[in-house]
Amino acid sequence: MSLFALLLLPFAGSLLTAVLPTRARTALAACAGLVAAVAAARVVSLYPQIRDGGVIRETVSWVPSLGLDLTLRVDGFAWMFALLVTVIGALVCLYARYYMSPDDPVARFYAFFLAFMGAMLGVVFSGNLVQLVVFWELTSVVSFLLIGYWHHHVDARRGARMALTVTGAGGLALLGGVLVLGHIVGSYDLDVVLGSGALIRSHALYPVALVLVVVGALTKSAQFPFHFWLPRAMAAPTPVSAYLHSATMVKAGVFLLARLWPVLSGTEWWFWLLCGAGASTLLLGAFIAMFQNDLKRVLAFSTISHLGLITLLFGLNSPLAAVAGVFHIMNHATFKASLFMAAGIVDHETGTRDIRRLNGLMRSMPRTGTLALVASGAMAGVPLLNGFLSKEMFFAEAVFLTAHPTVEVGLPLLATLAGVFAVVYSLRFGYEIFFGEPSTDLPRHPEEPPGWMLKPVELLVVACLVVGVAPSISIGPLLAAAARPVVGGDLPEYHLAVWHGFGAPLVMSLLAIVGGVVGYLWLRSHQRSGRLNETPFFERFNGRRLFESGLVTATRLARRALRLVSSRRLQAQMFTIIGVAILLALLAARGVPLVWGDRERLPASHEFVLLWVIGMVCAVGAAVMAKFHRLVATTLMGGAGLVTALTFLWFSAPDLALTQLVVEVVTTILFLLGLRWLPMRLHDPSRRTTMRDRVRRGRDLLLAVGAGAGLAALSYALLTRPAPQSISPFFLDRALPEGGGTNVVNVMLVDFRAFDTIGEITVLGAVALTVYALLRRFRPPAESIGRPQQQRVLPSDVVTDLVKPRATGERAGGYMMVPATIARLLLPFSFVVAAHFLLRGHNEPGGGFVAGLVVAIAYLTQYVFSGTRWAEGRAHLLPPRWIAVGLLLAATTGLGAVAVGYPFLTSHTAHFTLPLVGEVHLPSAMFFDLGVFAVVVGATLLILTALAHQSIRAHRPPAPNKRTEAS
Amino acid sequence: MSLGHLVAVPVVLPLVTAALLVLLGEKRRRARTLLNVGATLAGLAVAATLLWRIDAGGVPGAIGVYLGSNWEAPFGVVLVADRLTALMLALVGVVGFGVALYAEAGWHRAGVYFHPLFQIQLMGLNGAFLTGDLFNLFVFFEVMLAASYGLQLHGSGGPRVASGLHYIAVNLLASSLFLVGLATIYGVMGTLTMADIAAKLPSVPADDRGLLHAGMAILAVAFLVKAATWPLNAWLVPAYTAASAPIAALFALMTKVGVYVLVRLWTLFFSHGGPSDDFGGPVLLCGGLATVVFGALGLLSSLSLGRIAAFSIVVSSGTLLSALGMGTAAVTSAALFYLVSATLAVSALFLLVELVGRMGVDGQGRLSDVEPGEDTNLDDEEVPLVGRAFPVSIALLGLAFVCAALIVAGLPPLAGFLAKVALLSAVLQAEAPTAGAWWILALLLLSGFVATLSLSRAGIRHFWSTGNRLPPDVKLVEAVPVVALLGACVLLTVYAEPVLRFTGATASGLHAPGAYIEAVLTTKPRPGPTRPGPEGAP
Fold first, then answer.
1. Around Cβ A333, how many Cβ atoms within 10 Å?
2. Which residues neighbour B395 within 8 Å (Cβ) at sequence distance 6 or greater?
């Protein structure tokens, strides 16, 4: 089985368990346990290859261009970790079979559990730093799902989120650190990085990389100041805690420190960062652990403290300390996993984990009690157990360290103090619940758990004992193999033995034990009298509370900041866009010459100036009246449009003038029709204009004047330029010989740039469909359903001739008869005019667009003068069909060219002679123009009908406070 | 290798389909559904073929030039398909297909003319990616926007109309700026073909340069509005959250059009030597970074899933703009990879928003819900802890959500993470990383963190909150698009190497635009009856 198969095995198992029946707990546990056991067996079989410092590598190419290949690399250290991961994993599977309730849907549990095992194996096997980050974050994500397994509990949800947040953030920091390391070394490959220690440590970016990597490691290993997530993660089912929070996930941080020890260690930065974090965590964790009343929380803080110890050992920059660190990783995993399982058994059998309520359990569950006692002895560092050995090594390092004087004195003191605390909390865990008067008020009657549930605990406790009694035989070679790669290949001199002679370390151990027992008795007497039930002093600096309130504060602040930097109001958005446009335009032109052109200026004539004065008055008037009198504003807008049309005519652009004219007519009429349905202007006479309003208006005026002046200057600068590079002469030259028409504008529309035209008519069609779709659902406000105000103020005896659309059968009568009749008479003439414009378009001013609008205007007048019902009763217009046919006509004309091998929209002019008519030039663009015509007619009429139907539609009374079909 | 008429198909096919759909009317539902989905699928196939054939065409010659109306480049309208275009077309194809399918579950009946407007939208998107002419780009922008107005308002209702009218107003203003910029550039350069402008840019007289730069800046503002750059992006979140689910998923593409145009024009105009080189780079970088910060703030402040998805669009836009501001081929290559993964994932997320919402849990929570309670001893309740089983549909929905969230937040192991690693390692690749590089590094990591925070919060609220959850009613046509979009992301992860090779070739083509310019300007029209043969410009 290759390493890849080994890595994939848990993931495959995860998929398998996910599809098994969700409550088949025996089958699920067997399946998961088998997977773990097979993996463990395979890991064990790798031992000969790595025993003497060998390294197994396997690589699969993934993204080589990023320097990211899947590289599995197993050396002694990775092997030791893989062994812990798989063996403890198998034991926990067995344990969980009995721990989880028969009603629990455990398929999800085992699926996540195995996925986690795979992710963890991925971390330890990674031979590439980016790949390590991949699996690292995967462990965070899966642990999130595992902690939140009992997601209906608020604790589980919060704990899961906190764990994900802290470790996920650390993972991102680690990613940053890895990227910087890769930048320094030029590769993410672990072997290359491990070989470039000197380069890295001397690089200017070393502190950046170090801090980022260390933050990643500290968050994962729950080190101060990121320690607060681990106790909250105890909301997870106990098997999860036994696995993730003792042996595997939290060890990933110290794994990383050990992994990069040869590269990153040996500097002041490393020493102070890690020793600072490690020492404070060691002490803080142990201190808080003494005051916890929940069994699992005692263990959680004890884990934090022990991980602090390991971090401290790696931070000491001494190979011997690093070996001690590796040793303690192994020891801690064994005793802490067994303790978690024991805590779970107690919880399972008694129904509570409260130390204050649990007493004298030795009588009802002697085997569990004995095992827990031995394991907590190991945790406290009692001789003849494995915890003692690594603690002795730590004490020795603390004493013999040569460093700054304060460190030389402070460290042994700190070590002893931490030892005292450890003994106290171990006694609280081991002694307090199993001895004394048996409790009577437990939720359940305690008894020994099933034999198989205890087996994993027994196995681990036996391991603690064996290692503690005969270390050099049992664990010696393993430790050597595991520690060798960590210290860079050359193991320092060390001696694994229970008895090292009478020296300072032993004194410290004894002091710790004696002090611990005394401290425990003192604490117990205080707690019995109701004092010291909460952690003194540190209760106020609750990292968890800070985290959660920090999150809420951050959310609030983000909301406030968001309101500050963006607005939901349209005016403010428009202001920003125009302001930014002016600003960027000015910025862009900075530093390069910005001058007027040197084209010859034409003198202005009086008539033209007068024309433009009128136009400008119209435009400004429209803007002024837009708020107060919409009808006037619309009319003035039309006036400005007419002046534009006249300007075009003045400068010999008849095509543009014609188009502008008809467009003005159509848009003005449509606007006028729409005005009817606009709500009344909200007018609050009591509201006074404040200073703030004035400032805002002044600001807006300034922007408007600035933008207008800017645009005027821009146009002036452009119009005064001769444009020597322009391509326009080409069009004048080619329009007739190759485009087949003398009207260059039309030839451009239907030939040169027909692609634009087909897009534009699509826009027209889309807008018409949108307006129709929107207005179909439109329900006018109540106040505009009745007669318009102008009609209501008429004296009742005055008879109006206006069409009343809602009253059926009515038609134009009275004085409206005259325009209605004229409009009807004009209809056929307008068809003739439109046909004229359409047919001559290619050579003279005109074209499909203008023709379409002429027809549309003719129909508009029918609607206006004779009413919707009358008009629709006599003509089946079906505007959407006009649009569709027009688009199809234009597209098929274009495709016709494709059929004969030319690009889309290529035009061709056929010349032939018809009897009677004579010679005929039939450009294919004619059909294209016909399509344009149809779309224009259809789109205008569709918008018209959408507006017109408002007045004949039956109106539902508006439902109060209920929006129609809010999403 | 000539691509022939294939280049024009992505524009013509949706146009004809839209016209036919209008002709079919509102009655024949089945026929419309078949036509709409079929045409979208055909569009996807065409895009895939283009992508494949352009990539197979080798590094220099992989540019398909199509002379609309058979007029040579600076005079007619030219469509150009290079690698970048093909990539974007394929993206439109995938997302469009997903959306078309999803909408068939019922959204298409929420109002009239959904199908034709949808096809016109596709036509606008495809045209904007294909065109090589600045005015034609404006036309396709309008096509795209006109359809998007209708689609955004599709389904009607108060919030939609309110945000929709803002959306329309803002985009009309942006279009006006587009025209102003366009006119200025035409006034100075006398030409509208992008390649021709790029070719003539070095020879613009110094006296005209100020005007030209001002025009470019105004033009850029139009695209920056579209790309949702802060402070021009206040319109995005209300409009996208109010839009119906499939439309919001489609709109995830729309911001990318703004980014695409900026990438296209900036690399074409300002990356090949000349006095205007590196014009606007710092503005893009700063704007991009500010946008990332804005998006991250939005993510942090949002509880509802829809807003989170909308703000993650803002974040991805900002990331892309700042990457473009760095102005190196390596960063552009990584940014393109990021673009693909981010677009697919956010589209999927928008679809998921609706499906998740159907579980009946209100995402629009009060702030007090996240208030920390007093912590209690863990076993105070003394109830036996028994887990709750998830119905299969919720479990699968949860899985899809986790996948989408991982990609959006850039967490391993999916494509989002690879994109982030590619982007950051490219940014750091320079000998001495600039301040901009460090800012990108810091803000990208930070925004990833905020996204994790926000998505996990939303996920917990929807999947884990107390109370039993009824399985949502998810139809097959709704599940398939989500799976397809996420599946595409998974494929992107597995085949990251070939994709990165492709984006690398794309980026090097973009940053050395000589081949593009030459291909456009040297393509000759086909001789015909009135066109005796290839001639030079007058």
1. 24
2. A108
- Asked if A721 is an interface residue toward chain B (Cβ–Cβ < 8 A), one would say yes
CB atoms within 10 A of CB B340: 23
Nearest alpha-carbon partner for A22 in A83, A101, A78: A101
What is the ipTM for the molecules in this complex? 0.90
**A547 vs A543: CA distance, rounded Å:** 6
B453/chain A closest Cα distance in angstroms: 6
**Can you give B119-168 as a three-state secondary structure string?**
HHHHHHHHHHHHECEHHHHHHHHHHHHHHHHHHHHCCCCHHHHHHHHHHH
User: Cβ of A812: how many Cβ atoms within 10 Å?
Assistant: 21
Is any Cβ of chain B less than 8 angstroms from the Cβ of A527?
no
Q: Which of A925, A945, A930, A924 is nearest to A888 (CA)?
A: A930
CB contacts under 8 A, A 243-282 vs B, are none
Are B75 and A727 inside 8 Å of each other by CB?
yes
Residue identified by tokens 């090779």 is B501
CB-based contact, A540 to chain B, within 8 Å? no
Q: Which of B200, B452, B508 to mutate to test the interface with A (most CBs of A within 10 A)?
A: B452
Residue contact A766–B160, C-beta within 8 A: no
Q: Going by C-beta distance under 8 Å and a sequence separation of 6 or more, which residues neighbour residue A417?
A: A283
Nearest-CA distance from B290 to chain A in Å? 11
Query: For the residues A810-823, what does the mean pLDDT come to?
Result: 75
A612 touches chain B (CB under 8 A): no
- Cβ distance B480 to B336 under 8 Å? no
User: What pLDDT is attached to residue A797?
Assistant: 67
Contact indicator for A695, A687 with CB cutoff of 8 Å: no
DSSP single-letter state for residue A911: E
Residue B366 has pLDDT above 50, yes or no: no
Judged by CB atoms within 8 Å, which residues 770-799 of A form the interface with B? 770, 772-774, 776-777
Using omega within 30 degrees of 0 as the cis cutoff, is the peptide bond preceding B413 cis?
yes
- Answer yes or no: are the C-beta atoms of A934 and A885 closer than 8 Å: yes
Backbone angles phi, psi at A920, to 5 degrees: -125, 135
Here the tokens at position B339 are: 């673009």
Q: Which of residues 916-935 of A touch B (CB under 8 A)?
A: none
Q: Does A616 touch chain B (CB under 8 A)?
A: no
Could you give the 3-state DSSP secondary structure of residue B511? helix
The 10s digit of each residue's pLDDT in A343-383 is 999 988 888 888 888 888 888 888 999 999 999 999 988 88
Instruction: Select the residue of A172, A549, A770 nearest B150 (Cβ to Cβ).
Output: A770
**What pTM, to 2 d.p., does this model score?**
0.91
Minimum Cα–Cα distance from B77: chain A residue = A753
Round to whole Å and give the CA distance between B68 and A891.
13
Question: What is d(CA A536, CA A281) in angstroms, rounded to the nearest whole number?
Answer: 16
Mutation site for B-interface testing, chosen from A770, A911, A943 by largest number of B Cβ within 10 Å: A770
Q: Is A732 exposed, middle or buried (0-12, 13-18, 19+ CB in 10 A)?
A: exposed
Residue of A nearest to B243 (CA): A967
CB of A878 within 8 A of CB of A888?
Answer: no
- Residue B286 pLDDT > 80, yes or no? yes
Q: Token pair of B513, please? A: 């635009």
CA atoms of B523 and B534, how far apart (whole Å): 10
**Using one digit for the tens of pLDDT, what is the confidence trace for A530-566?**
777 777 777 666 777 788 888 889 999 999 998 888 8
Strands annotated E in B24-124? 64-67, 78-81
Q: Are B500 and A65 an interchain contact pair (Cβ–Cβ within 8 Å)?
A: yes
CA gap A800, A133 in Å, rounded = 82
